[in-house]
Amino acid sequence: MRLGAHIGISEGLPEAVRQGRSIGCDAIQIFSKSPQMWEGPPLAPEAAAAFRGAVREQGLLGTAVHHGYLINLGSPKAFMLRKSRKAFLDEIQRAELLGVDGLIFHPGAHLGSGPELGLRTIGESVRKSLEAVPDGTVRLLLENAAGQGTALCSTLDELKTVLAAVDAPDRVGVTLDTCHLFAAGNDFRTEEGYGQLVDRIESTIGVDAVRAFHLNDAKAPLGSHLDRHENIGKGEIGTPGFAHLVSDPRWENVPGYLETPLDDRGYDRYAEDLALLRTLVASVPVAKTSVRRPRAPKKGDEA
Q1: Distance CA 190, CA 124 (A)
Q2: 3 state SS of 170
Q3: Over 90: is that where the pLDDT of 263 sits?
């Protein structure tokens, strides 16, 4: 896995790249504006070019923008949906200007209208956005939710529903957040549990749809539906839960971004988590993770 972290841009876009590299990131995730704003100041072409140049110069292997928190692409309220779609399109255009690999976004919440309508609305929102940027190169990545409130896409089946509705596998994909997976009831702390999770991924969204991870331990118990991040190895998932994930050859070229808590030591806390994850990569024999779990034969399979 290409290990990295979410880095702030307060000191400038190119500096975010350099800061990430200085603590051992192979990949970085950023906001392109304040996540608490509907609209941000336009990105200066010179600043975007400097960011792209820094990515090349520093040799980063993965880049992503995370969208703002106000957007709800599944809203049943017409005014809010229009505003969300406009803001999402702006996020896409900013990500395109920055030349990042992916735009990671929370699919949305149905706010009482029900999962079926909410998922359909999200699918339509993403389709319209893709149509508005027909020549786009940034992949739109739905992030799985923890399942709190009416938030959608806390299950792999719901993610599959949206991907199928969009029907653009070359332009969309999924970011799996480990804390959210755990909070939604997926226990991958053992080798068997991890294998079962991979089986579910394969049978729903497909391994190829997973284009990024958020690597976060969980403060709350399994199945709590609470989105509470903790530093790696300090929470309910623990280091065994991450060992097979970060060592799995399926994800060798997939970026994994830390969103773990920081303290007065700043990014040194990230550096510690990155170092720990790298020791976990070395701790799991490749043979244990490189073999796919066999599936039961299906009717119609050739002998």
Answers
A1: 38
A2: coil
A3: yes
pLDDT in tens, 203-212: 999 999 999 9
pTM for the predicted model, two decimal places: 0.93
pLDDT in tens, 244-261: 999 999 999 999 999 999
pLDDT confidence of residue 285:
64
pLDDT digits (tens, 9 = 90+) for 8-50: 999 999 999 999 999 999 999 999 999 999 988 999 999 999 9
The CATH number for 72's domain is: 3.20.20.150
Q: Is residue 295 part of a domain?
A: no
Cβ partners under 8 Å of residue 107, min gap 6: 73, 74, 122, 142, 143, 145, 152, 153, 162
Distance CA 123, CA 208 (A): 19
DSSP lists the bridge partners of residue 176 as 213
266: phi > 0 → left, psi -120 to 50 → alpha, else beta; which? left
β-bridge pairing 217-218 and 229-230: antiparallel
Q: Which helix (H) or strand (E) holds 64?
A: strand 62-66
Q: Do 105 and 89 contact (CB within 8 A), yes or no? A: no
Q: 194-228, pLDDT tens digit by residue?
A: 999 999 999 999 999 999 999 999 999 999 999 99
* Domain-embedded: residue 297: no
Report phi then psi at 228, rounded to 5: -130, 105
Domain of 46? Answer: 2-290
pLDDT at 254: 98
With CA atoms as reference, report the closest residue to 69 among 266, 258, 185, 227: 227
Specify burial of residue 96 (Cβ count, 10 A radius: 0-12, 13-18, 19+).
Answer: middle
